[in-house]
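ok trying this again, last paste got cut off
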Amino acid sequence: MTPLALKQRVQARDRLLLQAETVGQLLHEQVLGAFSRGEMAQAEAAIHQHDEQLRELTENLGIYQAELHAQADELADSHARTEALARRFAALFAGMPVACMLVSDKGELLEHNAKATRLLALSLRHATPRFLHRLVEATDFQDRVRPAFHEAQATGISALDGVTFFGEGGQHFVGDLHVARLTDSAASNDVAVQFVCAVIDRTEHLRDVAALADAAEALRKSEASLADAARLARTGGWELKLRPRALHWSAELRGLLELPADVPATLEALLGHCAPYDRAALAGAVAAAEQGRAFELEVDMHSASGQSLRVRAVGHAEVSDERVARVSGVLQDISTQHQVRQQLGDLTERLAIANDAGGIGVWDWDIAQGLLVFDHRLLKMLDLPTTPAGPLDEALRPQLIEAALPMLQAALSAAIADGAPLNVELQRVDSHGHERWLHVTGRAHTDPAGRAVRLIGCAWDSSPEHVALHLLAAKEAAESANRAKSAFLSRMSHELRTPLNAILGFSQLMRLEAAAGDLVLKPHRVGLIESAARHLLELVNEVLDVSRIESGKLELQLLPCDLAAVVGEALALMQPLADQRGVTLSKLLGTDAPGAALVVMGDRLRLKEVLINLLSNAVKYNVEGGRVVVTAQQRGQLVELLVSDTGRGLNARQLAGLFQPFDRLGAEGSGIEGSGMGLFVSRRFIELMGGHIEVESQVGHGTTVRLHLAMPA
């Protein structure tokens, strides 16, 4: 009996007791009324009726009481069974291999097993109620989980897959949700509905499914790639099953031999496409494979259209239960490779002939094995009976001069370490003591790890090339010297002709006047003759200086010089010219210590000549009323001397032509005296004194010449 039926029985018993109390009260009222009226018979009848009713109620109560005792015993037994079932359910609930939760109709988590605790990262103690919707992705809960609970409430069970769960620890996973209603749907409305939810984590399953799909896709791609590779490599497979005997050809093999799909695959048909002289060899190889021996050979075949093919045939046996079950193999069209091999053989023969004709020797150095090989041409060139032992540099060491060995070792190190091409010219001495040249080239071969394991190259006697280069260089030097000599003579003749013409012209005028008896000494003519002669003397002196510089016969006396004194003397000499042109000369000489002198190492006379040249250019090519400033400052172990002017300046083309002898940079027609040799000689003088000279200029802003002079040690 159910608890509801028992409750109904108890309610019926209570109604009988209430009825008994009501009957007694009614009897009391009827008897008292009859006595008060003096109707004794009516009172007696009421008492008899009350006794009958009381007896009937007593009997009914006894029946109900017996039934209640029986039902109480049955309820106790049911309660015991329920407790046992509850204990078994609790044990089963706790030990389930999947996550289980007891959920109320409001979605509250009432209980959960250990698997759910781990899977959903649920804490064992939680102060506030926990609800299922906080463990499921919001969209999944609204669109799928809530309707699933309604379905389970109506039908008793529901299931979902692909639900996204969020554990309290922040982890998330995709799993299946199974919902089962615990409470009977026929229960009264006042009994709360509860659900058991089972959650199965499908993360690994989905990962395996994805991996399986990836593997299937990779297999499909691999098969497609193998098929493409077979087509590109012109390769076809075949398989011969022995029990029962049957031959299978791949589609690629049919395409290789141009066989239609309806042609039966037989060994006889395959052998029929072999050249007659190779048919027995292929048949014997297949027969040997049936006995368990693998084979590989090359045969000539032809396709169905008659095209000749060179084919590599490969086969092996597959053993099952210690017996050969099948023979598998591959046929590859190597016609192109066969043709290339033949061409390579021809090329090798022609290369050998060319090497013999050109005297080129070949060497091969196996670095990994430590083996070095010279071919017969290289051995003959080096006059060696056999290849020397050891690395290439050690093998060539006796042949090379001392300075050539480090060059070879450096080139070999670069080729081995960096893969750089080997290309080096080495000077050597042959067996007769004659100096010769050996040109060595080569390239490194590397393993899969990128390490050089082999060097292969060639070498030849490049002595004739060096002789030709020396002759060519000597010829070019002679031609260059001849051109320079012609240019020098041309410029020199032009520069010398101008003052000589002036001297000759005025001299002729004086002679003619003397012949006519009108000779009157004119000072300006004598001055012009003197000026032209002085200019001619300066030209000769500068040419002599250049000649001595170029020949190395110019001797300088490098001694400590007081730069301020030299600058002062040069300025004093240039002052008349500056006054004539209205140019202001000034100097600013600084030192690290007040009162200290700037001392430089140099030839005082030549240094003064350089300063006069620079100051002369600065004054002559300056503007009217311009300025020339000489400054000097110590810069570490050097003294920097600057000659700056406010002249017209030089453009980029003119700067590029500085320091060229006889090049006056377009000032030839300006009427300003000059030879174009000053800067050329000045730079050579400064260089011979251990310094250097630089020029900076800007059109319209003037020019600055910077000298760097060494100080005494």
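PB: full thing came through this time. The longest strand covers residues 308-320.
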